[in-house]
Each structure stands twice: as structure tokens, then as C-alpha cells.
């Protein structure tokens, strides 16, 4: 559905050229929810804005639904943009228009007649769960409701692709969850391709099928979400994965234990599915003369199944502990001895 081939964007500034996006290749399938994660300044906004030519690449090509966007005339681009909608962190609603009028706006621009417009607005209001709020003004809505208007407006002309620019970053965790659930619902119901940018790994974890990690304008790692969670290869990806799997308190506790009792090993077990770790722990206790203290455990749900981490402390003689670790290494879990030097 979307192909980026050697895409670069260089901004000319008074301080010299800025390489915002540097030789990015990406391929996003139809019907996929694809996440791009990176810290501030990594080039995410610039990249997503090139997917609808709000920003033109300095070189390389962006193909969406079979069309090379940089080769389109102005009129063709306007038409193509009806198929590539966007929602924003700060909603970008028209404040003097009601919810219904905001949603109707792109339909007016597309020249849709009044009767059809009214019918379509009713459908969209229902789709995003805003029944009864059609006559309200944006200033009378909560953040989550405003984003629902943004989504309804973006869907008005039946786009093929929805671009989400930090769409939940201004929302509290509960509202974020409800908007993410709505995006999944739309993806499944309409078969819409969704590309989102974020700096929050739990957004990726919760709704994305695949993820690309950006750093200094480049995509440094990409893959199915569950694979990236299990085997992050770059340091930056490991940091993002920790946002979800390793709360700060755990890090502090582990550091303290490692300092106080350096002779005991602390091990992180990673497993896919909810039950995999249970037999391993029982087996280790039965087979080896070690005591196991469970420090922290967490199971996170992704679009493609559950992913869990468990931190344990192994207490026992060196040899028994090493043998227990080798044994765990041979089981259906990934094992990493944690150290904080
Ligand atoms: N219009 C512009 N002119 C000059 N430099 C720009 C422009 N837009 C972005 N940049 C620069 O390009 C780099 C990437 O910025 P970009 O906004 O794409 O990153 P980001 O990952 O989206 O970060 P953030 O989430 O903070 O917006 C930054 O160094 C930024 O200063």
C-alpha cells in the first residue's frame, strides 16, 4: 500500500542543512497498523508528512496506493489526498463549527450534495461513538471526544490510509486507550491502513502489527511488534521496550539487590504467551538446589499475542545457580542475566 524508497529530507536552515530524514526505505502493507517510534527530533513528523506530501522529499520516492506522489500534478495530488487522511495531536478542528459541521467539511470540499452529506455525517458520528454530541462545539468537548471528531472527519471521504501524528499524546491514559481501541475497530471494520507516529511504546504494543524505530533520521530497526519486543537489537529499541516491560521501581530494586547481594544472580525471563514461565520455575526449583525470589512479573497484550517478562533472583551455590541458568536457557523462554555495572 505504501512504499518509501531511499527517501531523504534535508531542511536548509541558517545554521546549515538539517538531515531530518535520511535514506529511509519502508514498505507498509494494506490493512496494516504500522507504528513509527522515536524520540523528539528523530524525524517522525517529517517522515509521516511526506506520506501525503505536506512535506516534499528532497530525494527518493513515496508511493501510496500505486501512485508515486512526487510525480502528481497539483490536481492529482488533491485527489490522492482524499485517500490519505490525517489526524493530529491537537485535533486541528474548526472551532466555530459544530461537530456535525466539522465532519461535513471535507465532504463539502469534495462536492458531495447536502442530502448525502447529512447521511454520511450520521454514519460517521455513530462509527466514532459521538451520538448526541453533533450540535456541540469543539470547546464543549473533552480531549477524547475532540479526537473522535478528528477521526470522523478524517474518515469522511472513505480514505485508504489514515496517518496519525501523535494522535493520543495530548490525552490521559484512559482516554488514550479508548481512542486506540477505536483505531483498531476502524482498522478491522474498514480494512483501513493506519500509519502512526509516537514516542510511547505502549501505543505500539497495544495496537500496531509492525514497528519501525527511528533515530537521527534513519530507521534503525523494524519488524513485527512481538519480535521487536522479544529481540530488540539496537540500544534505543531496548530503551523503548523497557518503557513497557520494566517499571522504574523494578530497576531501582534490582540495582539495590545486585549491590547488596552480588553473589546472587538476577535473571530476566522473557516469554510469549501467558503460561510459559510457570513450568520452568517449578522445574528449576525441583531439579536444582536453588531458591527463587520473584521480583517482578508482567504480561503485556500485543495485537499478535501476549508477551511477558519475569525478574527473578536465584539464591544458591554458584554451581547450582549456573546450572539452573543453563537449564532455563534450553527451555521455551529467553533468559538474560541482569547486571548493572
Ligand atoms: N521546517 C523545518 N525547518 C528546519 N528544520 C526542521 C523543520 N522541521 C523539522 N526540522 C528538523 O528536522 C529534525 C526532525 O524533526 P521532526 O519534527 O521530524 O522530528 P520528530 O521525531 O517528529 O520530533 P518531534 O516529536 O519533537 O516533532 C529536527 O532536527 C528538526 O529540528
UniProtKB/TrEMBL annotation:
Keywords: Amino-acid transport, ATP-binding, Cell membrane, Membrane, Nucleotide-binding, Translocase, Transport
PROSITE patterns per the UniProt record, alphabetical: ABC_TRANSPORTER_1 (PS00211), ABC_TRANSPORTER_2 (PS50893)
Molecular function (Gene Ontology), one example: ATP binding
Signal peptide: none
SMART domains: AAA, NIL
Tagged with keyword Aminoacyl-tRNA synthetase: no
Domain of life: Bacteria
Pfam families attached to this UniProt entry: ABC_tran, NIL
ABC transporter domain boundaries: 2-241
Classification via PANTHER family: AMINO ACID IMPORT ATP-BINDING PROTEIN, METHIONINE IMPORT ATP-BINDING PROTEIN METN 2
Name recorded for this polypeptide: Methionine ABC transporter ATP-binding protein
Taxonomic lineage from the root: Bacteria, Bacillati, Bacillota, Bacilli, Bacillales
